[in-house]
Amino acid sequence: LTLEGKTYQFPIVEGSEQEKAIDIAKLRDQTGYITIDAGYKNTGATKSAITFLDGEEGVLNYRGYSIEELAEKSSFLEVSYLLIYGELPTTQQLADFEYEIKTHTLVNEDMRKIFEGFPVNAHPMGVLSSLVSAMSAFYPENADQDPEEVTQLHIIRLLAKLPTIATWSYKKSQGHPVNYPKNDLDYCSNFLNMMFSLPVANYEVDPVVSAALNKLLILHADHEQNCSTSTVRLVGSSHANIYSSISSGISALWGPLHGGANQEVIEMLEAIRQDGGDTQKYIDMAKDKTSGFRLFGFGHRVYKNFDPRARIIKKAADDVLNKLGINDPVLEIAQQLEKAALEDEYFVSRKLYPNVDFYSGIIYRALGIPTNMFTVMFAIGRLPGWIAQWKEMRTNKEPIGRPRQVYTGAPKRAFIPI
Ligand code: MLT
């Protein structure tokens, strides 16, 4: 084949100079050449200027700023602005952004009527994904408006309303009325107030709790092309509206192999505690493929080193529990498991280090967040990343996502009528 003045021989030998020289994407586009990569393990599905991730070194940057610095020095809305608009905001830009968000924290009362129809034991992620999808009906596009202004308004609405909606499931599970937003509070404190304040008792948001939540949300804000983010991009690539695209991301995040893992981790740690806390027994079971036991929270598709978020969360978990005077035996079990695994050849040779989900549930528990809300917290954190990725994909006018397949079914068969 001759393409753009270069000649290619088929089959292409793996590792050959020719293979290295080929822009596979271009070749696929022009020849129909297909390679299989189930789950897009190593195929870049897109180019992106948002998040840099080096899995070998354990480095994570948002728009060039290190996750360590952002988690230490920024507010979640500052990081959201950075991800979505590409630059850290000036003081005035941040104040305007915060103000805009505060003016949109209320949710259309008719959405509450939809919510009332959900059973009390519905998983909060199913409720969240449905209600975010419903937002497209309550906040439709207006054909007379400038499309950029409309998109900007949708972005603000999503950031403003997601925490409000997220608290409803919890309030219902407690048999309590929902709380309205309190706009004199910052983003995290407002969420905590809607979760925990009751009409009959004073509730003061603890600044330690609010600061810990701020850090957790920043650490979860983006993570390049993971399952939910690629879902948001793929759905959005058909020009589906932003609410449907984000709703599909929430559904993708729900699964135990993705955002649902932190719920699995805490349930696993709790089960180990109830079984007497013998961590070595569980390390041995994890190594024994016939045991059926899986050590949740260890290893990551991309990281062959420590997940940098896990390092920060581990320290934050220690600090928060100390400051709040909480002695959670599950934290000790987590620490013992980590120590045992990091000293064990089986885990070391497979580069199975603790990931972000391993410690996040322990902090959420300390903050009073119930286990079935852990993935919801992840979704609130990931929202600006999804929005940024959706916006980048649309701004770059990317084509509709359309993976090809390698057909493995029956060859052409003659139809013989019965
Ligand atoms: C994430 O933060 O999205 C998870 O670590 C999963 C991933 O990146 O694949």
From TrEMBL:
Keywords, sorted A to Z: Acyltransferase, Transferase, Tricarboxylic acid cycle
Any one GO MF annotation of this record: citrate synthase activity
GO cellular component: cytoplasm
InterPro entries: Citrate_synth-like_lrg_a-sub (IPR016142), Citrate_synth-like_sm_a-sub (IPR016143), Citrate_synthase (IPR002020), Citrate_synthase_AS (IPR019810), Citrate_synthase_bac-typ (IPR024176), Citrate_synthase_sf (IPR036969), Citrate_synthase_typ-I (IPR010953)
Reaction(s) catalysed by this chain's protein: oxaloacetate + acetyl-CoA + H2O = citrate + CoA + H(+)
Pathway stated in the Swiss-Prot or TrEMBL entry: Carbohydrate metabolism; tricarboxylic acid cycle; isocitrate from oxaloacetate: step 1/2
Catalytic residues in the record: 300, 357
Pfam families in the cross-refs: Citrate_synt (PF00285)
Family, as annotated: Belongs to the citrate synthase family.
NCBIfam families: cit_synth_I, PRK05614.1
Protein name: Citrate synthase
Species the sequence originates in: Dyadobacter luteus
Lineage of origin: Bacteria, Pseudomonadati, Bacteroidota, Cytophagia, Cytophagales
Gene label: gltA
